[in-house]
Amino acid sequence: MRVIYLVSLLLLEEVYMWPDAPCRTPPPAANYTLEQYTGRWFEIGKIQTTGGAFFEKDCVCTHIDVGQSRKDPSETIVSNICNKKTFDGKRIIANGTLTSNRQPSDGRYNETIFPAPLPVAYNIIVLQTNDFSVEYDCVVEFGIANYCVHILSRRPTLNETIVENLLKLAEQYDLNPKKLKFTRTNQTNCTYT
User: Fold this and answer.
1) Contacts by 79-86, CB closer than 8 A, 24 or more apart
2) Is 71 left (phi over 0), alpha (psi -120 to 50) or beta?
3) How far apart are CA 71 and CA 178, in angstroms?
4) What keywords are assigned to this protein (predicted)?
5) 64 and 76 Cβ atoms separated by less than 8 Å
6) Looking at the predicted structure, is the pLDDT value of residue 55 above 80?
7) pTM
8) What's residue 13's pLDDT?
9) What percent of the chain is predicted at pLDDT more than 70?
10) What share of the chain is helix, strand, coil (3-state, %, to 5)?
């Protein structure tokens, strides 16, 4: 029995010493306000680990709607919406709840998406109110970091130079330690309700 206990402790220690880098804490967007972030954002593209893609696997027409909770004004609801595989595929919606220890928030939140067991660090690191934003989220579970960098726009398209500059910023903040590929989101022929 003692051998099983010792092996269990060693395995547990290995999990917590896994070589994954910890989540980053990038600076929040300058002059962030929830009012500026509220509304519809279209995903231009993302850098995303496998675990971070549990909702978005095979999604197109991805967009988010951000608004204040009607039940609790201290919470913000983010509805992640996409279609499975094609523009007319099955609609998938995952609602997340953002909470912040700071009131008003500076763009750093904890996001809870049911049934996920742990809240995810959700950071708005760039916000140009009427044009584009960058959201970085990350969680470490069992020593494995899962993260996403989302480039968002108020329209389904975004100038390529802006996209490249935002990717350089993500690299500067070391938000992609696994050096994953940026994947563009297909927004062709999409309808949004």
Assistant:
1) 80/55, 80/56, 80/113, 81/192, 82/55, 82/56, 83/59, 83/190, 84/58, 84/59, 85/58, 85/59, 85/60, 86/60
2) alpha
3) 39
4) Lipid-binding, Signal
5) no
6) no
7) 0.86
8) 41
9) 89
10) 20, 40, 45
